[in-house]
Structures are given as structure tokens and as C-alpha cells.
């Protein structure tokens, strides 16, 4: 895959991957930068059918020293596009797909699939859309009108009972519901679970994450619903200049990258064809 072809793909993937469009430098991220040291980005197929990322024909490696390999061409193209999108300075904190690949490859916490599924399902017990307020009435109605349809869709889609509660303890999630989701998540491969868990931690919601992964919600909708109470407070009290927009775009960037990673890690020929279309 040549640099020219990658740049054509950049126009399609840029909404998710482009640091100029999605991310603004923060003080805490200032150290996660270095001068760009390569000219060309390409991909190649190596041993076992795995795909590698080459920077000026030098093989990319993970922070743990492993050869950076991904399981399919679609994900390789997306990661290569992310590297090609960097300009004079590499801003690693904007390279979410590369970070997720590094996490899957190095597995720094040394977890297996069962442990990852258990961690993901823990969020169901404290899911954002399941916790409701008692007052003010306007926010009560807003949560009901905006969250209930998604919650009902989720219950119908997976034939489960979730519910909501204004109690500090939250709703009591039936064991049958947890078992259903556990069985569903077992069908995900390790890489996809890495991305899904990342999305869930961003939105603090299994319901919104699954709604987005299943394409019932867009990234923008899922992010807005995850910030519903905050958006209500901003509408009532106003917001700090720039802070609201920065937080919103940062969350959208991370969530979009995580969702893209899930789909690409579960790559099919259909996904690859869509990526290659212009």
C-alpha cells in the first residue's frame, strides 16, 4: 500500500483519525509528542497472514518491543492512515487506533477474554442510562424521553430486562441479563473486546456502547446521551469558554476510534470493500 493510496483513504477516514480535526493539544499531552522521523507509510503482509506497518520500510514495533502486527488488511490500512495523517510533530495522544492495537498486542494487564468480559459487564451495574434523578422535573423528563427509547431498544434487541432506578444503588440487573450479555460478548474476538471495553469506559455505558456498535446510534448521538445531565446543566448555567467544545470533540474522537476499531477488528470482506470505496 503506497503513501498516495493511503492519502486517498485519509479523506474518508479523516473524520475519525485526523488530529487536526478531532483533537486539540492539552497540557497533559504535551510530552506525548516527537518530531516526525519518517516520510512514507506502507503496509505489508508478513508471517501467518498478519499485516505490518512500515515507516520508511522500517517495521513498526509496540512499546513492549513486539512487532506491530494486525490481523487484517482493513485495520492495517486504518492504522497506516493514522500514522500518515501526522504532520511535522507526532501527537501520539491522538493516535487512538495505534494505541488500541498496542494494548491488544502487549496486553499490559495480562487479561484473557473472560476477564475482559467480566470487566465490561461491571459497567452494566452502574450504567449511565440506568441511573435517574428525582429532580428537577425538567431533567427527569429529559432522561425519560432520551434514555428510555434506547433502553427499551436494548431490552428488546437482546430479549433482556435492565430497567432504571433513581436509587443510589441503581437498578438490580437480573442474572439472566448478565448471562445473555456474557454469551453475546463471548462471540467477540480478543481485539474486538479491547475496542469495546474502551468505548464502554468512554461512555460509561454498556447500553449506549452496544447501541452504537449495533449501529442503532451514531457516535454523536451516543456521546450526547452519555453527557445528557452535563448538557442540561450547561444549558441552565452556561459553560466555561472552550472547555465544553474541547471535551465534546475529545470524547467523540475516542468513541469513534473505539467503534471503528471494534468493526475493523471483526473485519469482513464487506467492511474492507466499504473502506476501499471512494
UniProtKB/TrEMBL annotation:
GO biological process: one example: mitochondrial proton-transporting ATP synthase complex assembly
Subcellular localization(s) per the UniProt record: Mitochondrion inner membrane
Database matches in Gene3D superfamilies: ATP12 ATPase, ATP12-like
Membrane topology designation: Peripheral membrane protein
Keyword terms, alphabetized: Chaperone, Membrane, Mitochondrion, Mitochondrion inner membrane, Transit peptide
Function: Plays a role in the assembly of the F1 component of the mitochondrial ATP synthase (ATPase).
Family according to the record: Belongs to the ATP12 family.
Protein known as: ATP synthase mitochondrial F1 complex assembly factor 2
Amino acid at each position: 500500500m503506497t503513501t498516495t493510496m493511503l492519502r486517498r483513504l485519509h479523506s474518508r477516514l479523516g473524520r475519525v483519525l485526523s488530529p487536526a480535526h478531532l483533537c486539540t493539544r492539552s497540557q497533559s499531552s504535551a510530552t506525548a509528542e516527537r518530531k516526525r522521523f519518517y516520510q512514507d507509510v506502507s503496509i505489508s503482509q508478513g508471517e501467518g497472514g498478519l499485516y505490518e506497518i512500515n515507516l520508511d520500510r522500517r517495521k513498526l514495533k509496540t512499546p513492549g518491543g513486539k512487532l506491530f502486527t494486525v490481523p487484517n488488511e482493513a485495520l492495517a490500512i486504518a492504522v497506516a492512515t493514522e500514522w500518515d495523517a501526522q504532520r511535522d510533530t507526532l501527537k501520539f495522544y491522538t493516535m487512538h487506533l495505534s494505541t488500541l492495537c498496542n494494548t491488544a498486542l502487549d496486553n499490559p494487564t495480562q487479561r484473557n477474554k473472560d476477564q475482559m468480559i467480566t470487566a465490561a459487564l461491571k459497567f452494566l451495574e452502574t450504567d449511565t442510562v440506568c441511573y435517574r434523578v428525582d429532580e428537577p422535573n425538567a431533567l427527569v423528563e429529559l432522561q425519560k424521553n432520551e434514555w428510555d427509547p434506547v433502553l427499551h431498544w436494548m431490552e428488546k434487541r437482546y430479549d433482556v430486562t435492565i430497567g432504571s432506578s433513581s436509587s443510589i444503588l441503581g437498578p438490580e440487573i437480573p442474572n439472566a441479563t448478565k448471562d445473555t450479555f456474557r454469551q453475546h460478548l463471548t462471540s467477540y474476538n480478543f481485539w474486538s473486546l479491547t475496542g469495546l471495553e474502551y468505548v464502554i469506559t468512554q461512555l460509561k455505558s454498556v447500553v449506549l456502547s452496544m447501541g452504537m456498535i449495533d449501529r442503532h446510534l451514531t457516535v454523536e448521538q451516543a456521546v450526547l446521551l452519555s453527557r445528557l445531565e452535563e448538557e442540561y446543566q450547561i444549558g441552565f448555567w452556561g459553560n466555561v469558554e472552550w472547555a465544553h467544545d474541547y471535551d465534546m470533540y475529545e470524547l467523540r474522537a475516542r468513541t469513534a476510534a473505539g467503534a471503528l476499531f471494534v468493526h475493523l477488528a471483526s473485519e469482513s470482506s464487506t467492511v474492507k470493500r466499504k473502506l476501499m470505496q471512494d
